Amino acid sequence: MELTTLDYRIDGAIARVTLNRPHELNTMNKAFWTELIDVFNSIDAEPSVRAVIIASTGKHFTAGLDLGMAASGLNSTPSDPGRARESFRRHVKEMQETFNVVDRCRVPVIAVVQGACIGGGVDFITACDMRICTEDAYFTIQEVNIAIVADVGTLQRIPYLLPQGLVRELAYTGRRFPAAEAKAHGFVNSVAADHQAALAAADAMARTIASKSPLVITGIKQVLNEGRSQTIEQGLEYVAVWNAGMLQGDDVPNAVKAQMAKQEAVFADLRA
């Protein structure tokens, strides 16, 4: 897989995906939107991976969408506005899929944020399971500042992470949402002194997750994600059916024996 905007490697049970355009503030150019899909398709197909860490390089996590790319799609004068708008709608849906694959990834995804996380960066990290940031980090729903309704995931996912009043304030004003405030509202799991400390915290979390049954971890993620569109009754039925179908292997006996012996259980990988 040839990548120009990301570095991707598998380190034992952890997949490490890193934005690698620091001199361009890790802006999301045209290649990014397809490369991230390719990487996550590869992760889902790799049975040894049990957690993913998303990181970045340089001073800032990302300045969001490459504005040159955004402008190129708005400057033309179509001869048929209806067909042009239908094409634009499909373009937005394709961009949405870039972060949908992160949300759907069958293993947990941890985002590590340093400095600025702007616009599309917020779309990206709200599709992750957990967020760890540095003390100097801040988050901005930037789209309102360039007269766009955020359209690739932030407005759909962030209401599950923050109170409605705060969500609306951030979306309407485009103000900075600093690390300390984000931690106070539970938007980030923890705040580290610097980038290296944040990466170390993510690594420790990923290794803990990787030590659990991967079948159970993927089940937890599936049940939590499905629960966003279900009533409590529907969610209870879903998890009952999931466990009835999935808890038939060796993982539960292995876990119980390990607990009783005060040892760490060893679990087989998922299948590709």
Question: How is this fold's topology laid out?
Answer:
Layout: E1 6-11, E2 14-19, H1 30-45, E3 51-56, H2 67-72, H3 81-104, E4 109-113, E5 116-118, H4 120-126, E6 130-134, E7 138-140, H5 154-157, H6 164-173, E8 177-178, H7 179-184, E9 190-192, H8 195-210, H9 214-227, H10 232-246, H11 251-260
Parallel strand pairs: 2-3, 3-4, 4-6, 5-7, 6-9
Antiparallel strand pairs: 1-2, 7-8
CATH class of the largest domain: Alpha Beta
Number of separate structural domains = 2
Q: In this structure, how is the largest beta sheet organized? A: 6 strands, mixed
Identify the CATH homologous superfamily of the largest domain: 2-enoyl-CoA Hydratase, Chain A, domain 1
Q: In which range does the helix fraction lie?
A: 40-55%
Q: State the low-pLDDT regions, or none.
A: none
Q: What's the overall geometry?
A: globular
Multimerization state? single chain
Strand order of the largest sheet: 1-2-3-4-6-9
User: Helix/strand/pairing class, anyone?
Assistant: alpha/beta
List keywords for this structure.
272 residues, alpha/beta, 2-enoyl-CoA Hydratase, Chain A, domain 1, Lyase 2-enoyl-coa Hydratase, Chain  A, domain 2, 2 domains, six-stranded mixed β-sheet, three-stranded mixed β-sheet, 9 strands, globular
Written account of the structure:
The protein is an alpha/beta fold and 272 residues long. The chain folds into 2 domains: 6-210, Alpha-Beta Complex (2-enoyl-CoA Hydratase, Chain A, domain 1), CATH 3.90.226.10; 214-260, Orthogonal Bundle (Lyase 2-enoyl-coa Hydratase, Chain  A, domain 2). The chain has 11 helices and 9 strands. The chain has helices spanning 30-45, 67-72, 81-104, 120-126, 154-157, 164-173, 179-184, 195-210, 214-227, 232-246, 251-260; strands at 6-11, 14-19, 51-56, 109-113, 116-118, 130-134, 138-140, 177-178, 190-192. The chain has a 6-stranded mixed β-sheet with strand order 1-2-3-4-6-9, with helices on both faces. α9 (214-227) packs antiparallel against α10. The longest helix has 24 residues, at 81-104. The mean pLDDT is 94.
